[in-house]
Amino acid sequence: MNEEKRPDTEMGLAASHIPTHIIRISDTANNAIEQWAFELAHDRLQLWQLPTGLQAFWTLAWSEGRESRRDELAKAQADADRYYARLYDPRLELKPAPASHAEMERRRGNPERAAEYEAFLNQLFTDHFGGTISHPAAEDRTTT
Fold first, then answer.
1. Nearest-angstrom CA–CA distance, 53 and 11
2. Nearest to 36 by CA among 49, 21, 23
3. Per-residue pLDDT at 15
4. Degrees to nearest 5, angle at CA 55 with 49 and 57
5. 6-39 burial string, b = 16+ CB within 10 Å, else e?
6. Cα separation of 34 and 40, whole Å?
7. Which of 4, 54, 74, 77 could crosslink 50 through cysteines, CB 3.0-4.6 Å?
8. How many CB atoms within 10 Å of residue 61?
9. What are the phi and psi torsion angles at 56 (to 5°)?
10. Are residues 39 and 45 in contact, defined by beta-carbon separation less than 8 angstroms?
């Protein structure tokens, strides 16, 4: 079998549980999957119409993509909030965007959601890396 090595394996970055070769499928299957992806992206095909394995793959890819943009979207929403507030109260000072999603929730007056988000991140970090995340800003805050 003619296997091509992934570029990251040459640098020693691949985890031991991740295959180090490109998985091959037939050209027919590859073309069908490419066509389905195009049709899904252009609303000409619904996710439920795909085989269950591809539904799972698409859903996972979509979730990973969305998660990878979470902080960027949160900062954009925080900017929109700041500009909206500034528009209707010109006396307000434009402050820099918050450093995290949790800080944005605190600024919006949602300390419970901020705490939930930080707890989620800590649990995620603990599950994957065996530690917790330090929140220096949380130590500096005083409750009123």
1. 31
2. 49
3. 56
4. 150
5. eeeeeeeeeeeeeeeeeeeeeeeeeeebeebeee
6. 10
7. 54
8. 11
9. -65, -45
10. yes
**Residue carrying structure tokens 């900017």:** 79
DSSP-assigned beta bridge partners for residue 21: 5
Note the pTM of the prediction, 2 decimals. 0.41
Instruction: Tell whether the model's pLDDT for residue 49 goes beyond 90.
Output: yes
Angle at 134 between CA 117 and CA 109, to 5 degrees: 40
- pLDDT on residue 144: 42
Coil, strand or helix at 130: coil
- pLDDT, residue 128, reads 59
Secondary structure (DSSP) of 48-85: GGS-HHHHHHHHHHHHHHHHHTHHHHHHHHHHHHHHHH
Hey, CA dihedral for 50, 22, 67, 76, is it positive or negative? negative
Asked whether 94 and 81 are in contact (CB, 8 A), the reply is: no
